[in-house]
Structure formats: C-alpha cells, structure tokens
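Good day; I would like, with your permission, to put a structural problem before you. What I wish to show you is a protein chain and, alongside it, a tokenised description of its three-dimensional fold. I would ask you to consider whether the tokens describe a fold that such a sequence might reasonably adopt. You will find the record immediately after this paragraph:
***
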Amino acid sequence: MKKIFLASSLILAIFFVSCGTKQQSTLRHPGTSTGNTNVDRTGNTNNTSKNKGGTSVTGIAYIDRYKEIAIDEMNRFGIPASIKLAQALLESGNGNSYLATNANNHFGIKCGGVWNGKSVTRPDDSLNDCFRVYENPEQSFKDHSQFLLRKRYEKLFQLSKNDYKGWAKGLKEAGYATNPRYPELLIDLIERYNLQQYDRAEKPVELIARAEKVDQIIEHKAEVEPAASVEQIKKPIAMQIYEVKSSDTLTAIASKYKMAVGTLKDLNGLTSETIYAGQLLVVSK
C-alpha cells in the first residue's frame, strides 16, 4: 500500500512540475535564473538564463551568416560590426521580412539618392513607397555603409570601431531614428547576442588615419551626388518599443498590440515566453 501511495505522489509531483514549467513568467532582472535551455547550431542544449531575454536560433543563424561582411565593412569604414548586425536584425526581423526575403534589402533603404537599380514598391509612409532591390544580401550590407557615409553622420566616424554605445546614441542624435529609446534597443540587442565580440579597437594613429580617409569619401560624395532629402532616401525608423512591467506576460503584450505571440517572439529573438521587468520589446515597425 505504501508503494502505491509513493508512486501516486511521484506521478502527481511530476504532473504539477511539468504544468508549472509551461506557465509564462516575468522576471525582475535579466540575470535571474530561469532554467531555460536553448538548442545551439550543433543540436546541443545550453543554458540561456544569463542572456537578456534569451536568443533565438534564427537570430544566431542570421548573425553567423552575416558577421563576416559586417566585420569587413567595419574595417573599411569604422562602423562597428555590432551596430550593423543589430540594425539588420531589427530592420529585417532576423532576415524574415518581406524586403529581406524578396528584395535582399535588410535595412529598409528606399530608392532615393543616386539609385538606378531594381526596385519594389511596398506600403510604408505611403501606399507605393519605392525600396531598393539588391542582387544579394551582402550588397545590402555594403549599401548600408554607403547610406551612412553622409554629412549628417560624419561625426560618428570619428568614434572608435568598438564604441557601439557611442554609435547607438549618435545614430539617434543624427536623426536615424525617431524613437527616443532606439539607442537602448540597439544596445540591448548587441549585449543580448554578444555582438560586441566582433568589434575591434583601434590605436589612436589607426583611428585618425581611418577617420581622415572616411572624411574624404564623405566630402567627395557631397560634391558629386545630387542633393536629396533624407526622407527621399530613408525616413528615420519609427519603431514602437514597449518596456515590460513586472505584471506583464508575453500573451498580454501580444494581445495589446494585436499580434500573435509567435510574431512578437520572432521580432525580439525570444525562444521562450519568459520576460523580465524593464526589458525592451519591439511591438511594431
């Protein structure tokens, strides 16, 4: 009889534990252990409790595919690879957006300026906004560098290649984004995925030499390119960002912004429904 009782108790305990693990939770601090596991590229599991909000397999795969071109562009012009990758993750939804999959456009750059290549129209600020179409994603990453090589972003290239926080704040100050929390969003993504590992520090002499070379490129472009307003090239990003409260659940946030939970997870690189107070979530674009 005692054996039957113990067996029944064990079954009930397992049942309640398994049910409890399915419940959504909101953590008070990203460092709080959640016991969640994440499958890495080799198929092994690893604990993700130390990562802010966790990382998604699609996000990691995206970074793994494009980190080399981001590093190459960083070494050429000084844009931190972490910044380029974070912006690409945001703009392309980890490479899953319509523009990324159908136009190889990973940064949402429009047709303005000197663009004479292929294009596609999509509803954005108007019903038929013109967006650039690239031959491959790498061309999009390179064109993103050219987009930033303009007078309004000139001061950013005086920063070191590993100053991602300075770049994140500088992009907002230069008018790249309208959302006041845009720098925090980029920094959160960079630190969540440890993208700063791809940035390279510069010696003072190297920084000066590289900055002078970039300055010459910007000056030359200002002379030969026809004048074009920023809006004709790309309107500043107007993402809507939500700051998680201690009482929030992912389902409640998704319902509030009329989107599926899966969409909200994909947009923010989440592998579980565990979120923490103070976390920044992209809830629209």
